Amino acid sequence: MSTSPDRGWAWLVLLGSVGEHIVMSYLAYASGMIHIALLENFNADVLTTTCISALFLALMTGSGGLALQNCVFGAIFRPSKAELALTTANSDRKERFCDFVSSYMEIVRSGSMLCVCLGFFLANISIYLLYIHYPEYCLHTKSTKMEVSIFLSIAGIFGCFTRILFGMANNSHNIDELLMLFGVFSLLGLSTIIFPLFSSFTTAKVMFACLLGGYSGCCWAVVNSIVINILGHEKVAHGVGYLMVYCGVGTFIGPPLAGFIINYGGTYGDSFIVAEQWTPKKVDDFEFTVAADENKQTILASNKTEENDSFLIEEIKNLNIDIRFINKE
């Protein structure tokens, strides 16, 4: 069955995607406000409360099966022509359990994929540390709860804009996805270490909310393309799921780390400095390792293609010689 965009299904998929992101964005961006409510109502220490908040975020990120509200929006996604063709091609093939496991082991053994996963693992330690503790930090610097909620809304709005811009840039063949990812994480880390110096100013809080929402949200626009470049189209779903497990573990580690610092004599500013240490310096090492590996694979593939082309040319020449010889006979 044809699923071309002119039949109107593309708009329905877009509507479902918007609804899914409304739910997920509320759970992610409002986590800091939920953390404040838990602190006020249960009077527990920061570390214990942060562990609860981090567990909620980690399960949301790392255990997709628990987020059943997404099924409501995902159910209206019409299968694409590529998916229908793949399903038809594989309808008569029975996959054994060992084949299923081996397909995942290929992903686990991929050095490039491991580097990307470790990069996102470290980045999520920093990003969700900020999302949990940024609202509480603003309250400690004389902002009201209403102002904090506005700051988080601004972060979400800028996340929308940067995802669009990042997706447009990703369509250009002259821009490398890993280089863009390194750039935005580096800028986020730089703004994180500068923010505590100006945290008493409302303008600084607004600017940091813009940077936090924009630079932490746009990275997801290139995840699929990076996974496809490394693993191919056939394993994109497995690869993204494998990546999200690392993101979930990083999400669980980050907020309690800040809670530990605050409980044992540190400040929110100290925890923000720790968050900066996880973001740019570590991710660029992993991503440039991936870039080097991808370049190596490209060179090997190019050499292999050239060898195949030269072999075909020789075969064609030999075939022409044989044909001429037969004609003479």
UniProtKB/TrEMBL annotation:
The UniProt record lists the keyword Cell cycle: no
Pfam families listed in its UniProt record: MFS_1
Entry GO MF terms: transmembrane transporter activity
Chain ranges passing through the membrane: 46-68, 113-134, 146-166, 178-200, 206-231, 243-262
Record keywords, A-Z: Membrane, Transmembrane, Transmembrane helix
InterPro entries in UniProt: MFS (IPR011701), MFS_trans_sf (IPR036259), Proton-linked_MCT (IPR050327)
Top-level taxon of the source organism: Eukaryota
Coiled coil feature spans: none
Signal recorded as keyword: no
The name this protein goes by in its record: Major facilitator superfamily (MFS) profile domain-containing protein
Organism: Mytilus galloprovincialis (Mediterranean mussel)
